[in-house]
Amino acid sequence: MGKWWVSFKNHLSACVGFWGRLPFGESAVIQEKLMLFRVVLLLTVLALSSCSDEGGDYEGPWGQVDGVVNLGDKPLDENATLTFMSTEGYTTTAILNGSGEFRMKYNGSNDIPVGTYRISVSPNIPDEPVNQDPASFFNTNGSTKVVKVAATKIPEKYRQVGSSGVEIAVKEGKQTLKIDLDLK
């Protein structure tokens, strides 16, 4: 390897004991390969750790959204998942409580990017208890078991963002929404 490598290796060896020789006295070639592996590993970890930014690349204004989902003239009284998908590609979800109430979160924060969102509301309770053992998800012949979903009052059209026809404008600051869904 070049002079830069020797200089780099010596610098790292002097700074951090991890980069020095291993106690069982291997050859210089093995030492250099181990050193190179450790440097590549360190650079990979550093590169990957810089990839998880809380807000992504969004730098605009933020809003805080909570509210209630009504089905017909009453709050939706079943547990369901509310999904917001913005025209810019940001997606956030909230679990409705048994009274139709929700609070949107984005990357663990109560703030979500301002913009126009299409929504979906889908049931999330299986009809039977779900066993967490991975083997329980397969039949004896190896095929995947079908999990039955409990009967729901949520019309099919609201279960997909593309078919719900409901759009929400999220504005800067706090807002409380009332989302009304038809029974049909």
Describe the overall structure:
The protein has 184 residues and is an alpha+beta fold. The chain folds into two domains: 3-49, no CATH class; 62-129 and 143-181, Immunoglobulins (Immunoglobulin-like, Sandwich), CATH 2.60.40.10. It has three helices and nine strands. Strands 1, 2, 5, 6 and 9 form a five-stranded mixed β-sheet that branches. The longest helix is centred in the N-terminal third of the chain and has 22 residues, at 28-49.
Topology:
Layout lengths: L2 H13 L12 H22 L12 E10 L2 E2 L4 E7 L4 E6 L4 E3 L7 E3 L1 E9 L37 H4 L2 E4 L2 E9 L3
Parallel strand pairs: 1-9
Antiparallel strand pairs: 1-2, 1-5, 1-6, 3-4, 3-7, 7-8
SSE order, one letter for each helix or strand? HHEEEEEEEHEE
Radius of gyration: 26 Å
CATH topology of the largest domain: Immunoglobulin-like
- Major β-sheet annotation: 5 strands, mixed
- The CATH architecture assignment of the largest domain turns out to be Sandwich
- The number of distinct helices, counting runs of at least 4 residues, comes to 3
Helix content percent band:
10-25%
Question: Which CATH class of the largest domain is shown?
Answer: Mainly Beta
Amino-to-carboxy terminus distance: 72 Å
Detail the poorly predicted runs: 51-55
Overall pLDDT: 78
Count of DSSP strands: 9
Keywords:
single chain, alpha+beta, Immunoglobulin-like, five-stranded mixed sheet
